[in-house]
């Protein structure tokens, strides 16, 4: 691990370090309280999730569109929620290509929306995007097809710097490993327009360095539809619980309620690694104990021997009571009924909040376990 200080984002709560088994990661520089904001990150790039999302969301800030949006005067396809967003517009190459993408009977892959947006970035931003870590690899044939398609959509006078099949391959790899989804609320609190799903995707340079854990210690909040929030596409990461100095900050790349095999399958397919976090190790032990129990029960049936006490003792040696309770306490306290994650509101005047907010449905309610948790006493 490197000990060179490198504060992440706009505050000095996190330090970027290098670990042999984890790569680049972010660790706490001091004790972090439950609900404390550990990182606010601004996107390096935002792009629509699909062509079907264009009539629903502003092509600049990705808020839900009002009844009378402002059309892009150039492409006449993109829509904006305000004159301000209209003046800021959207990626140049995407704007040029949209009329071709929506016309005719051709089906274009959504990856082109990302590539057209990425190639529209200024040179320095494009280089920063290309510097992000990636695990994904794609067949040369797929990249050749994608690069041929995007080449057909860019006129000679707009061909960007570093435009090549190699760069296209690298960009797709970075996107698949590091992109975040901007989710639409599952309820209808924003003018009745809430729609479940992804309205857009984004690449967030600091957030992309947060590693995975099946029991994360921070939770991501986004407030895309808040009208009074200027930087509405910024991501805010808050602590679920107390985090000690030097502890790595982790999120979950998959739903924490998913079973072990589903999580492992998704992580390997989408991110190229097998998770060996504490929770996964515990669940493997559970499975091994269960298989051992089943094997011994089968042996008892075959031999007629009664080994029930031996089985119980053996199982107790595999897992102690603390390990058995570990994941369940997390699910109860930090899971909302809607399936989202619950985290305390930010501390006020140094005091930990008794209120929990869901990062999915947005509901706020009292944390019933607040007074019994010694970590809430500061």
From TrEMBL:
Region of interest: Disordered: 291-322
CDD domains documented for this protein: SET_SMYD
Cited Pfam families: SET
Matching PROSITE patterns: SET (PS50280)
InterPro entries per UniProt: ASHR2-like, SET_dom, SET_dom_sf
Residue intervals of the SET domain: 12-254
SUPFAM superfamilies: SET domain (SSF82199)
Residue spans of biased composition, Acidic residues class: 295-322
Name under which the protein is recorded: Histone-lysine N-methyltransferase ASHR2
């Amino acid at each position: 691990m490197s000990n060179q200080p490198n504060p992440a984002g706009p505050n000095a709560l996190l330090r970027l370090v290098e670990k042999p088994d984890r790569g680049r990661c972010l660790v706490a520089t001091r004790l972090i309280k439950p609900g404390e904001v550990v990182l606010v990150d601004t996107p390096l790039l935002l792009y629509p999730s699909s062509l079907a999302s264009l009539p629903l969301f502003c092509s600049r800030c990705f808020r839900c569109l009002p009844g009378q949006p402002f059309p892009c005067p150039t492409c006449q396809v993109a829509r904006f929620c305000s004159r301000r967003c209209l003046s800021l517009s959207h990626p140049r190459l995407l704007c040029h290509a949209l009329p071709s993408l929506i016309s005719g009977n051709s089906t274009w892959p959504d990856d082109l929306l990302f590539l057209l947006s990425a190639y529209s970035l200024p040179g320095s931003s494009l280089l920063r995007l290309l510097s992000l870590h990636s695990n994904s690899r794609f067949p040369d044939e797929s990249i050749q097809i994608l690069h041929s398609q995007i080449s057909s959509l860019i006129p000679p006078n707009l061909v960007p710097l570093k435009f090549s099949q190699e760069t296209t391959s690298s960009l797709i790899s970075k996107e698949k490993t590091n992109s975040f989804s901007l989710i639409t609320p599952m309820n209808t609190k924003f003018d009745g327009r809430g729609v479940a799903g992804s309205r857009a995707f984004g690449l967030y340079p600091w957030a992309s360095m947060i590693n995975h854990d099946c029991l994360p210690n921070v939770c991501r909040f986004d407030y895309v539809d808040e009208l009074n929030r200027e930087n509405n596409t910024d991501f805010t990461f808050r602590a679920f619980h107390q985090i000690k100095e030097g502890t790595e900050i982790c999120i979950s790349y998959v739903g924490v309620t998913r079973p072990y095999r589903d999580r492992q399958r998704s992580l390997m397919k989408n991110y190229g690694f097998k998770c060996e976090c504490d929770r996964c190790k515990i669940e493997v032990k559970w499975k091994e104990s269960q298989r051992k129990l089943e094997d011994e029960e089968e042996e008892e049936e075959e031999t007629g021997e009664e080994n029930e006490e031996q089985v119980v003792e053996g199982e107790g040696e595999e897992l102690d009571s603390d390990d058995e309770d570990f994941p369940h306490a997390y699910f109860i306290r930090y899971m909302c009924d809607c399936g989202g994650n619950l985290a305390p509101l930010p501390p006020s005047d140094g005091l930990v909040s008794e209120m929990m907010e869901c990062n999915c449905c947005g509901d706020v309610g009292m944390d019933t376990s607040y007074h019994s948790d010694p970590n809430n006493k500061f």
